[in-house]
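Q: Got a minute? One more chain.
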Amino acid sequence: MGSATTSRRRRVAALVLACAFARPLLAGGTPLRVASLNLTADELLVEMLPPERLVAVTRWADDADMSNVAGRVPASAVRLPRADLERLIALRPDLVVVSEYTDADFLRLLEKSGLRHHRMGGLDTLTGIRVAIVDLGRAVGTPEASARLTTRFDDVLAELAGRLEGAKRPRVLYWADPHTAGGGTAIGSLVEAAGATNVGRELGLRGIVPIAGEKAFAADPDVVLVTHGSGASTALRRHPLLSRTRAVREGRVVEIPNHLLVALSDRAADAAWWLASRLHPARVPEAAPPPKLP
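A: Always. Here it is, folded:
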């Protein structure tokens, strides 16, 4: 075991040294070769970069259930099944994009490797997502592309807010058998942007946390939000308590596609629009507005 570990460390050290002689950056220090280690960056970089500059994405980028860019990722980009420092160094990226959700132990190794990296943060609110898009565009040298994404992001959310002005806000409980989303979560932010009250936050919960069936039943939500295809809807209807809630009995269970629920990119605006169209169908049509012409 010791010999194998030593050998691996030597290989990594040699690769780190090789990175010092990698091709130069673009003018102004802009990274030429960019690797993504999170799905949010996958989605944004597909929109921001020429195909030849995106050298690696996560394995989730091609999964239509998870990704909003499935089928659009350059074939030349390596698909990384996990955060593998040795394989990453071998790709000789000029910039590695990680997020606040990237494993802390891996981040420490990445810092020690000497590879330049950009960490996306603030992804638990729509405002934070917008800032992260701008920051990423600056980091990879494509501010015009990030501005295009944030302009539509802003336009969709502004039109949605206008349509929802004065509307009664239904109380929505996200349920993932047995977890819910409290304050400080992207899902909670999504619910609120869609013109609803997040029951998890109303109950004083923070983060993605378990919720007891008794507590969820007593909260008496107007709507229960679940992930489509996750089995949560079936479990909900079989639950001895939650099956008896007013929302379930009256058929007010909304199943959101997973790729929208987990969107922490510019597509979060589309997710808010989609949910609002289910919660406020008289005010919000199903299709979000297309990008405005320049």
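A: The chain has two domains: 2-120, 168-279.
Q: Perfect, thanks.
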